[in-house]
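S., here's the first fold you wanted:
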Amino acid sequence: MKKLAELFLLFSIFICALNAKETVQIGVLAHKNYESTHMMWDPTAEYLNTKIPEYDFHIIPLRFEEFLPYLRDKKIDFVITNSAYYVDLESSFGISRIATLKNKDFNGKAQTEFGGVIFKRASNTTIQSVEDLKNKKFAAVDPESFGGWIMALRELKELGIRDKDLKTTFYGTHESAVFAVLDGKADAGTVRTDTLERMAAEGKININDFTLLEQKNYPDFFYQTSTRLYPEWPIATTKHTSNAMAEKVAVALISMPQHSEAAEASKSMGWTIPLDYQSIHECLKELEMGPYKHFREDAFISFVKQYWYYGVIALLVLFLSQIIVLYIARINAKLRDTQRELEILNDSLEEKIREKTEHLYNESVKLEEAYLNEKYLRSILRTVADVNQMLITTRSKYELIDKATLCLSSNESFKRAKISLIEEGELRVAAAYGIGEDKTITWIERKAHEEKKNLMITDLDDARMSPECRENIASHGIKAIYALPLKSSTFSDEVIGVLTICTGRENGFNIEEQKMIEELSGDIGFALNSFAQQKHINELYDERLESYESFIDAMVNMIEQRDTYTAGHTVRVSHYAELIAREMELSEKEIQLLVESAKLHDIGKVVTPDSILLKPGKLSNLEYELIKEHAKAGYEVLSNVHLYKELADIMIDHHERYDGSGYPYGKKGGEISLLGHIMAVADSFDAMTTNRIYKPRKEVKESLIELSELSGTWYHPAVVNAAIKVLADVSIDTTINQIGHTPLEEERLSYFFKDRLTKLYNEDYFMMVINGRSRHSKPKKFTVISLIDFHRYNKAFGWERGNTMIADFADFLMQKLPERLMFRVWGDRFVIADYEGNLDEVLSESPLVEAGIKTAIKEIASTADNLEGMLRDKVI
């Protein structure tokens, strides 16, 4: 019995170990105290535990000085801290931001930036301006506090006030600094923006007891401020945290609802993609703080700190022999070389940081746009699919009207939906849902009915509207009204009613949305007419299904129009899939299902943002994760309609793999339908045999060899065998590619291949021209203009003025050589293709001459060996 109990205990321990979650520690800067930090951030940890259940998240409040040992000993996995301290820790410990906090102001709006205030008591008449602060008692939060010291210090320094001119006392918290000024312990002080307003709202102070110095005003920024604005607090991942965990946390935080318990507790509106922190680098560099502290030390102090032990050794062995003296001299020479190398590395540090932050900012903007666009299009698709399902399944006219109107009004973008019908020769409201309770017919419905055409109203101050109507529109935030006549069929002008939809979106209804609503209004009108024509119910039922299929085809066509490269992709995949299925002797019914499903297999790409779908290059990991969502999105659209459920069940498998390595569900072997296996091979074959910018197409023989090599891993062996037989002789259109052929397509590609600063082609497009993979013919020679020692100009006058000089020089070249193909490469070099004139004479008039910037010119034949290396060589 005792042994049985011991075995049971061991088994229980084993089960607990299997179910144990990995603990994740989030270090948070405690700018008040530990208790308030837990109250503010514990809900965020609970939110992450809900969204990512395989981990157990905990909040660890830390003071400034506590972060260093925790990061050194790898006791925390993520960091939430102020912006300047993040930049310092990024340099010291390699942490990397994944999201930025959206602070909530008193107007309920999101603020992703903050600043600092420099204030005094209103009754203190001895201080009228910043110049009066010299030798005055000054209250701040902490030497490491960005909003409570560093921001103000930068402004004061620019106004001639140095930190040693102030009698500064650090009080530990923002509120303590405010009370020190209020109680007369300090003449003036500084805290982060929103501190005075929040303390006043909590009844702790009267905000009128204080006056701001050097007050600044910024559009859309609610709080008083005396400084520049900088990005809000970030959350960053440490070097030892896995990329997979960091990516899950980033997606979860960016998806946090703005009114969630976690957002409310942190007094924020959730998180957004990581912002550009270059302005903080500039601030810290100017003050020689954080990662730029070493700028304060002279060469001798730096030398002593780093090589003091060599001096000790030198003293010890000085008495041994003259040989040791010579050895030490050699060591000193090496040290001087090392010091010169460090100086060169310091010169390049700023450029590397700028490039990294610019890249992160651009990627973050794309991610946020991708997320918002996906969310919006997905909601519209679901609403349209739900209403179309009602059209097919509902058997009562008024039940259909009521359910369809209610479904449309439930979409978060639509403020109101109304369906009006002709009854007894008069237009009457049949159903209306959404904001307001008015169920009367307006002039908008009457005009749409009388003119028998769609009516878009964006001028909401139209005099034809009643005062009550205009007041209702203004109070409920309506931005546009769309009224569409409901016709009995696509071949008749008979209007049987009107569909009216109001939107709250700032830009009204976009083109894609209008097309979907127009298609839907035709479906609703057709469905309503079918109830009045019971003797033709079967015929109308078939036409209704055909109308829905036309809508699906329109969606597929709209996707292919968004990306000319994929035009015809679904047709080719359908053709290849049919050939394989017939070789495998499947039934005609199965072949028809496969062909129809193949036509719709990429319908889910309507939710994929343009910045990802149209990207003419390889996708990042996160972009790839977003585009993978198209399989689920397409399945959701089709599976909601009973007659398309079979097609959806086939389509969902076209990215699954035989060995379980595919998506979206990781199915393998027999879990994947045979038709899904066939579609996967057909889809991959078309991808292999068509051109991409970053990868040329493969020949049919090469593609079939690759399919054969992946047989039994990615693809079903029987399907591959059939494909090898029937696809060996197919004809491939070799003109399909991603290169722009029209001005519109060229403008689309310019997003990826034009330099943001100068609008010239960038080095990515330059390499395409060199390799003969662009719409421009390969030049015979290149003329390289190099700006000599331009980094010294940047160092002397600042990066902003340096960027202005680069842009002015590019404008000069485009004006002087308007017909030439030109590039900006590697920062300070410009390349002109096939130029035959006197370039020295042209450059003598450039803005570089007045600025004292010298140039060097070098000509290189495009047929030269190691062309890229020669272009990168320094031009003398």
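And the second, which I think is the more interesting of the pair:
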Amino acid sequence: MEQVRAARSRARSCTACVVLFMSMLVSAPTRGDDSVVLSGSIPSAEIPDWINRIESGTPGPGSGQVEYLLVDRQVRVSEAGSSSYVHLVMHLATQAAVDEQAHVQISYRPPTERIVLHQLRLRRGSQIIDQRQRARMSTLRRELELERGILDGELTASVLLEDVRVGDVLEYSYTLERGDDGLGTAYSDRYTTQWSNPVRHSYLRVLHPESRHIVVKDLNPSEQPVVRNVAGTKERVWQWHGLAGIAAEEDVPGWVTRYPAVLLSEYPDWRSVSRWARRLYPDVALSPQMRELVAQWRSDARSTDELILRALRFVQDEIRYTGIEIGPGGYKPQSPDIVLKRRFGDCKEKAYLLVTLLRGMGVKAQPALVNTVRKEGVRVWLPAPSAFDHVIVRVAHEGRIYWVDATASLQGGSLATIVQAQFGNALVIADAGEFETIPRVALNGPGEEVVERYDLTAGAFARAAMEVSSTYSGAAADRMRRRLASRNLEEVGRDYLNYYKEELPTISAAGAVRVEDDRYNNRLVVKESYELDPAFTRNEGDDRHYFEFSAHVIRGAARAPKTLVRKFPLQLDHPTHVVYRAEIRLPEPWNIETFDKAIAGPGFDYRSSVRYRQQTITTEYEFRTLATHIAAADVQEYSRKLEAVREDASYYLSHTGDVAEQPFRLAFSAVFAIVCGIAGGALLIRWLFRYRNPDFPAPAGPLAPTGLTGWMLLPALGTVISPFACGYVLYSCQDYFDAGIWTNLGAGQDVVLAHWGRIGIFFVIALASALLLLSTFLNYLLFRKHRAYPAGYIATSWIGVLLGLLAMAALFALGAVEEKEQISSIAEIVRDSFSAVIWTCYMVQSQRVRATFVNDGRA
């Protein structure tokens, strides 16, 4: 099943000529270090009698590329197999064309395929140069998919031409003969009818017995075939003239038919394809080794969900991906017992093993065929096994359907949250197999979230600390887990450091890369530590120094396509949702402009913001895709908007380089707050000193206890500590006495909020000053056992609650309180209020208080 995937992989690396004739089995250029020479000869014969001889035209003016004069393909289907005749004539108008075409390569797969060479010649003016005896011919076994774990046994007939010159016309023809594969596979094929290079004349002829019902579908029915029946043989002939080349475009959705083609198939419907495949995956009983595995899993698993997950991860992680796809091995899997014993297999074999294990555990599971490129577009094609290039597994459990890929190693998540295979549609292999739609993945949050923290508090030109935390979830966590498994952390750290070095030239590693992998929840965190010495650097030709960083994860997701003027839609990497956040702690107050920005483009949404609170800058950038593709007409607008995203996704600070310490200037507002507080405190002290209220405290009973003992000990201790607490509050406000800091309070916040925040800080300083005086005097009243002490204690308690409330409101208005700190502050105020209520009641009702505080201050 992997053979179609391998063909596509090779096609991506071919030259223009090779792409042109991919459907004719012309393969990629030879890499000598990967090839094994098997033979020095290629079978040759005269052109078969059943072939219609088609002559090519004469060359036109050189166009700087290969000029195809004739593309002639003729196919004959018989009971023994099929024969595909290919006849190519091309004008080599430039040296580049000579370099490209002077090495002819034709790929085929024994034992069911062989090639026979008919013509190989150059036309140079009126001279015909037969190359069959002059060219260097060899048969190579190259195994181009070996690095992907695929051994397909494909051979390449390599023909190296001699004495090829600019202006020559190269002509060659061959027949590819296909025999029975032994699997009962009916005939099907696909022939491209327009390519990236222009073609002057294209001829396609298909012959088959009338008794064989072959369905034909033209994906671009611009030309209708000429059909006739001759002596029990049906003949269809298509001809095209003056075909223009189709411009290459990157990132075209797989379901789009870029190159028109004629499809042929003997399969009447997709159900017949499923029935054909069903015979390749017979139900088998568990082997002793499989039963032992299942028994072990059952003893450890706490639920059927976990049992299914154990089987899936065993096949994904412990059966390595290797496919031997020589001959029938391209479609027919080895038995699960063999795959388990040798511990390797390709997609169909790993899927077959997983299905067998799950069925042995009583779980309903079936293999399913998918096309990894065309996805849902595969249904446009005619039914045929070659329409698919991958096998996955459909699991039905407790009313839910799961689509799992047995080749997706190191996946995380539970059975309910595991990232399911995303291939659009799947043909379930069953007697009544039908196409089913695979649900699309919906992201519940960012797949990748990067947070970078810069600590510049030591100074703009001192050593700064940098911490990076990258959190990956879902499919992004799976990809990162596989990447980390293939490399050691030292290599990863070196790569990350070199990546940052381009943007931050003074960076150096401050520790090893750390990984936290929560596989069950599929959340993986990579942490890095660096130093910048210094953070600010000077650019050449500029007197200023700069500290700059970019939202690299955003810029990577927002790369614009290269081809803007397009014919086809543009495929997007959907779903993508990435977030980047940077926090920069500054050594001093800066004038920072805050803003919010949004860019909505075709197929994506982008938002960014900059905030400034208490000498800390916080930038946040978020990018997410909204669609799988965008129309060709929207690509230029899409590219323009992406460029705006990339320009916005960065931030910099500049510094003059003058690090002289700014002179201290006294803030008048803060001084005035202290004066007001002292005045207010003095008035309260005067009131308490003259306190003569006979009703409070009320007279004590005859047996009332006296002295600073019992419960009275707690408020007494609080009274002693209060002046020190008030002094600490004033000390923590010392920065506000600097006029520069006072002026910048609330920078970056709403102007009205900042104004009220500064007013709040004014009253916080005033109340703290008043409380400092009042609490000190309260100690005098305590130890004198003055009747004014209970009233003073109550007043001090509630002024303290008011101070806490004002401080929280002011800091919130100035943007200096995070959400978690707000919750903590509110809880603290509630606690202090509850305490003030309790001790107020105690001072009013306590007999000890009434009996102890009886001195009215008179001699």
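Why I say that: Confidence is low (pLDDT under 50) at residues 1-38. The CA atoms of residues 453 and 819 lie 18 Å apart.

Talk tomorrow,
H.
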